[in-house]
Amino acid sequence: MSFNRFKGQNGHQAKGGISRRGFLTRVGIAAAGALLIPSADVFANALGRERRITLFNTHTKEEWGFVCSPQQDYDPALLDSLNHFLRDHYADVSHTMDPALLDLLYAVTVLTGGRGEYNILSGYRSPETNQWLRKIGHGVAEHSMHIQGKAIDLRTEDLTTRTIQQVALSLQLGGVGYYGSSDFVHLDTGEIRSW
User: Fold this and answer.
1) What pLDDT was estimated at residue 32?
2) Domain-by-domain residue ranges, the chain?
3) CA–CA gap between residue 180 and residue 160 (Å, rounded)
4) Are 89 and 133 in contact (CB under 8 A)?
5) Can you tell me whether residue 133 is helix, strand or coil?
6) First to last CA, the chain
7) Is this model's pTM higher than 0.70 or not?
C-alpha cells in the first residue's frame, strides 16, 4: 500500500470555516477538558508529529492510507483518492468527501494513542442507496450526512467503539452516533449532536 502525503501551504479550512490550526487548538482544549493527556507539553508533542492513518473498506476490501501532518494542507490528489475510496459501493458512485473527516480521524488517533487503523463500514451514500437502506430497515436517517459526503461509520481493532465515541464527543466538532450492538461509531462534520 502506498501512503499519500499532504502538500504545501498552511491554513486549510476545515468544516464551518474553522482553519486547521483552529481545529487543532479545539482538539487540544477537548483533550485537556476530558483529561485524556497527562500534560500540555505531552499533547503538543503528540499533535506535532506526523501520523499514518490507514483505512480499510470492509465492503470493497480496499486499503487506503495517508501520512497526516497538522501543519500542511491536503493534496487535491489525496482528496480525490479519498472520494473514490469512500464511494457508495452499492452504486459505485463517488462524491466529494469533507476533508474535516480526516482531521477528526487524526484527532481521535492522537487523543486515544491508537494505531490509526480504521475499518470503514460506510462513507458516501447516494440518495438512492440511502432510500433503499431505509426501506429494508437499517435505521438509516432520511437526511443522512452520508448523502452529503460528511460522514463515516467505523470501528478499529485496537480501541473499543465506546472509547472512540467518548473521544469524539469531547471534540464537539460534529455528530457522533454510537451503535454498540453493531459495534461501530458514526462520525460526521455536521451540527454537534449525539445519539
Assistant:
1) 53
2) 3-194
3) 10
4) no
5) helix
6) 35
7) yes
- From the number of C-beta atoms within 10 Å of its C-beta (0-12, 13-18, 19+), residue 54 rates as middle
Dist CA 52 CA 88 (whole Å): 24
Q: Could you give the percent of the chain with pLDDT greater than 70?
A: 72
Q: Is 105 helix (H, G, I), strand (E, B) or coil?
A: helix
DSSP letters for 6-67? -BS-S--B-GGG-BHHHHHHHHHHHHHHTT-SS-HHHHHHHHHS-EEEEEEETTT--EEEEE
Residue 64 clears pLDDT 70, i.e. is over it? yes
Neighbouring C-beta atoms of residue 163, cutoff 10 Å: 16
- Residue 81, pLDDT > 90, answer yes
* CATH number of the structural domain 3-194: 3.30.1380.10
- Name residues whose C-beta falls within 8 Å of residue 187's C-beta, 6 or more positions apart in sequence: 101, 104, 105, 108, 151, 152, 153, 154, 168, 174, 175, 176
What single-letter amino acid sits at 194? S
